[in-house]
Write a structure and sequence with these properties.
Layout: H1 3-6, E1 10-11, E2 14-15, H2 23-52, H3 54-58, H4 71-92, H5 95-99, H6 101-110, H7 113-122, H8 130-157, H9 160-188, E3 202-203, E4 209-210, H10 214-217, H11 220-233, E5 236-237, H12 244-247, H13 254-284, H14 296-315, H15 317-335, H16 348-387, H17 392-415, H18 417-432, H19 436-462
Parallel strand pairs: 2-5
Antiparallel strand pairs: 1-2, 3-4
Helix pairs in contact: 2-8, 2-9, 2-11, 4-8, 4-13, 4-17, 4-18, 6-8, 6-11, 7-8, 8-9, 8-17, 9-14, 9-16, 13-16, 13-17, 13-18, 13-19, 14-15, 14-16, 15-16, 15-19, 16-17, 18-19
Length: about 475
C-alpha cells in the first residue's frame, strides 16, 4: 500500500489518517476530499446565516401584520440572536474535535428547523407576546454559533498555505447567507406558498397580501436537504480528535484576546451592520423602501471576505488588516455627513454608498484577521512543541487543534458585535433621536484597532 493511500485510510465516513502538509498526499488524495467537505460545508453555513439574521427582515414587518412593538423593541429583536450566537460559539468552537465534523455539521444544521417553524406560526398571531419572540430570536442564535464549528472543521482539512483561501471561501460564502436572506425574504412574503400549512397572510392598506411566515418557512426544506448532505457526504477526521481539556489552554494566550478585539471590529461590524442596517435606514429615511436595497451590503461584505482571505495569503494578513482598519475609520467619519439632522436633510444615496464601503471593509477585514489567527497560533504551537522536544508530527497535530480552537473562540468574541451595534443604534436613537452617538463610538474603536494592529503585529513584521 502506498504512503498516500495509507494516509487516507477510511472506516466508513471516518478518515483515520490525514496529512495535508505532505505535497504528494495533498495532490493525490487530500485536495479532493478537502474540497468535497468544503463545498458541503458552504451551503450549510450559508443557511445558518440565513436563519441567524432572520429577524433583520422580519422585525421591519412585524407591525405591518398586526403587532405594536416599539422601535427599541424591534432593534432588540434584531440584536438578540447575536447574543445567544456569541455565547454558543464558545462551546461550539470545541465540538468538532469532540464529536467529529460530519456529525456536528449535520446536527447543528438540522436543529435550525425548530426556530424557523416556530417563527412562521408566531408571526401569524398578533396576540403572540414579545417574550415569545425573544425566545425565538435567542433560538435563531444557535445558527450563528455554527460559524465557529464550521470554520474550525474546515481548518483541519487544509494545509497551512491554503487555509486563508479555504476559510475565506467557507466564511465568505457562508456570510453570503445574510444577503441571500435579505434578498429572498422580501420576495417570498408577497407570495402564497404555504397555505396548506396555515399560511394565510395579512391584507395591507394598499390591498396586497403579506405572508410574513414565508420568511421563516422557506428555509425549512433546504435545511433538511443539506442536513442529509452533511451526514452522508462529509467526513470525520480521526486526527482532529481531541478532548475539551486539551483545547482549553489556548484561552490563556494573550494573542487570543488581542485578535478577538480585532475580529470584533471586522466580523462584529459586518454582522452588526447586517442586523441593524435595515431598521436604521428606516428610521433615518422613512420614505425609502429599504428592503429593496438591504441585501447589497451583506453581499458586498460576504464576497469581500472570500477575497480578504486569498489576498492575505498572498500579501500577509497583518498588512491587509492594518490598511483595512484605516479605511474603516475613514468611512465611519464620512457617514456623519450623510445623516439627516432632526429629520431634515441627509442624503440616502450617500448614506447607502458609505455603508456599502463599511460592509466591504468589514468583510475584507474578517478574512484578513482570520488569516492572521491561523498563522499566529500555528507558529506559537509549533514553536512550543519543538521547544519541548516534540516531533514534527506532534507539532503539526497540536498546531491544527490549537488553531481550530482559537478560530472558534475568537469568532465568538466577534459575534458580540451583532448585538452591540444594533443595540447601540437603538439606544442612541432613543436618547438623542440620532444614530450619531453610536457611530462616534465605532469610529474611536476602529482607530484603536489601527493602533493595536501596528503596535502588536505591524512593527514586528516590518523589521
Amino acid at each position: 500500500m502506498s504512503e498516500s493511500r495509507a494516509n487516507t485510510q477510511k472506516t466508513g465516513s471516518l478518515i483515520t489518517e490525514w496529512r495535508p502538509e505532505e505535497p504528494a498526499f495533498w495532490q493525490s488524495k487530500g485536495h479532493g476530499i478537502a474540497s468535497r467537505n468544503l463545498w458541503i460545508s458552504v451551503p450549510c453555513l450559508l443557511l445558518a446565516f440565513c436563519v441567524w439574521m432572520l429577524f433583520s427582515a422580519v422585525a421591519v414587518n412585524l407591525n405591518k401584520v398586526g403587532f405594536n412593538f416599539t422601535t427599541d423593541q424591534l432593534f432588540m429583536l434584531t440584536a438578540l440572536p447575536s447574543v445567544s450566537g456569541a455565547l454558543l460559539r464558545v462551546p461550539y468552537s470545541f465540538m468538532v474535535p469532540v464529536f467529529g465534523g460530519r456529525r456536528w455539521t449535520a446536527f447543528s444544521t438540522g436543529i435550525l428547523i425548530i426556530p424557523c417553524v416556530w417563527l412562521g406560526f408566531a408571526v401569524q398571531n398578533p396576540a403572540t407576546p414579545f417574550s415569545v419572540f425573544i425566545m425565538i430570536a435567542l433560538l435563531c442564535g444557535f445558527a450563528g454559533a455554527n460559524f465557529a464549528s464550521s470554520m474550525a472543521n474546515i481548518s483541519f482539512f487544509f494545509p497551512k498555505a491554503k487555509q486563508g483561501g479555504a476559510l475565506g471561501i467557507n466564511g465568505g460564502l457562508g456570510n453570503l447567507g445574510v444577503s441571500v436572506m435579505q434578498l429572498v425574504a422580501p420576495l417570498v412574503i408577497s407570495l402564497s406558498m404555504f397555505a396548506v400549512f396555515g399560511g394565510t397572510g395579512v391584507e395591507q392598506a394598499d390591498g396586497t397580501m403579506l405572508f410574513l411566515e414565508n420568511a421563516a418557512w422557506v428555509w425549512v426544506p433546504l435545511l433538511a436537504v443539506f442536513t442529509i448532505a452533511a451526514w452522508f457526504g462529509m467526513n470525520d477526521l480521526a486526527t482532529s480528535k481531541a478532548s475539551l481539556k486539551s483545547q482549553l489552554p489556548v484561552l490563556k494566550r494573550a494573542h487570543l484576546w488581542i485578535m478577538g478585539v480585532l475580529y470584533l471590529a471586522t466580523f462584529g461590524s459586518f454582522i452588526g451592520f447586517s442586523a441593524g442596517f435595515a431598521m436604521l435606514a428606516k428610521t433615518q429615511f422613512p420614505d425609502v423602501n429599504i428592503l429593496h436595497f438591504a441585501f447589497f451590503g451583506p453581499l458586498f461584505g460576504a464576497l469581500a471576505r472570500s477575497a480578504g482571505g486569498a489576498i492575505s495569503d498572498r500579501f500577509g494578513g497583518i498588512k491587509v488588516s492594518l490598511i483595512n482598519f484605516v479605511f474603516m475609520a475613514i468611512f465611519s467619519a464620512l457617514l456623519f455627513t450623510t445623516l439627516p439632522n432632526n429629520g431634515v436633510g441627509g442624503n440616502f444615496i450617500a448614506f447607502f454608498g458609505v455603508f456599502l464601503m463599511l460592509f466591504l471593509t468589514a468583510g475584507l477585514g474578517s478574512g484578513s484577521t482570520f488569516q492572521m489567527i491561523s498563522v499566529i497560533f500555528r507558529k506559537l504551537t509549533m514553536d512550543r512543541v519543538k521547544a519541548q522536544g516534540g516531533t514534527e508530527e506532534r507539532a503539526l497535530r497540536e498546531a491544527a487543534t490549537d488553531t481550530a480552537a482559537a478560530l472558534g473562540f475568537i469568532s465568538a468574541i466577534g459575534a458580540v458585535g451583532g448585538f452591540f451595534i444594533p443595540k447601540a443604534f437603538g439606544t442612541s436613537l432613543a436618547l438623542t433621536g440620532s444614530p450619531a452617538g453610536a457611530m462616534k463610538v465605532f469610529l474611536v474603536f476602529y482607530i484603536v484597532c489601527v493602533v493595536i494592529t501596528w503596535v502588536v503585529y505591524g512593527r514586528k513584521s516590518s523589521k
